[in-house]
Amino acid sequence: MTPEFSRLVDIRQIGPAPLTLAANEGERAALAKRFALVSVARLEATISLSTEGDVVTAQGTLDAAWVQPCAISGEDLPQAVREPVALRFVPESTMPSGEEEVELSESELDEIPYTGTHFDLGEALAQSLALAIDPFAAGPEADRVRATPGLLGEGAAGPFAALAGLKVGKADKPD
Q1: What pLDDT, on a 0 to 100 scale, did the predictor assign at position 47?
Q2: Other CB atoms closer than 10 Å to residue 153's CB: what's the count?
Q3: SS3 call for 158
Q4: Residue 8 and residue 120: Cα distance in Å, rounded?
Q5: SS3 category, 17
Q6: Residue of 150, 144, 123, 147 lying closest to 45 (CA atoms)
Q7: Alpha-carbon gap, residue 23 to 42, rounded angstroms
Q8: Residues 33, 21: Cα–Cα separation, whole Å
Q9: Which is more confidently placed, 78 or 103?
Q10: H-run or E-run covering 157
């Protein structure tokens, strides 16, 4: 299955000029559906690629804007991000197998395996967008909705609230 925002890069054709990628209207609509967003208004990136053997380093900036439902009220909540992106694409054959325990350094956490001579920079950027989305984003109406009778507040709904309900005072204990 082809990702919604696929931009294949051939490592044999990487040049010195930065790449500019932008999702079109159809790709943005498909990404909004995938990430349960109301819409994606913008997904763009300017990325510089450099190689060291078969390892490709991608560095640049992700610029995105989307509308998501507020986690409390459901109202439309516009969001945006402009943040640095740093990824490493490494041949899958050099990645450790899932059977051995491996300790990763901080720089290895953004390594993306690829096979052959192509990697999907667009899909990596789509995943970067997914990581930028706050699943618990609350809008300006969230406090008003929380105050609605019948809804539990944060203190009444937390893990310790259930334990407090189990607490029995000495006067309530049977003899």
Answers
A1: 98
A2: 11
A3: coil
A4: 4
A5: coil
A6: 123
A7: 7
A8: 20
A9: 78
A10: helix 154-157
Query: Model confidence over 12-21: pLDDT tens digits?
Result: 999 999 999 9
pLDDT at 140: 83
Cα angle 161, 138, 24; round to 5: 140
- Integer Cα distance of 170 and 36 in angstroms: 49
Two structure tokens written together for 145: 């909705």
How far is Cα of residue 90 from the mean position of the Cα atoms in its chain?
A: 21
pTM of the model: 0.78
Cβ atoms of 5 and 43 closer than 8 Å? yes
Pairing of strands 8-10, 19-22: unpaired
Rounded distance between C-alpha atoms, residue 152 and residue 155, angstroms:
8
* Structure tokens that stand for 110 in this block: 């953004």
> Buried b / exposed e across 25-52, counting CB within 10 Å, b at 16+?
eebbebbbeebebeebeebebebebeee
Alpha carbon 4 to its chain's center: 15
Q: Are 150 and 156 in contact (CB under 8 A)?
A: no
Say if CB 41 and CB 23 are below 8 A apart: no
Picking from 23-37, 50-64, 127-141, 151-165, which range would have the lowest pLDDT averaged per residue?
A: 151-165
Measured CA to CA, the distance from residue 34 to residue 159 in angstroms comes to: 30
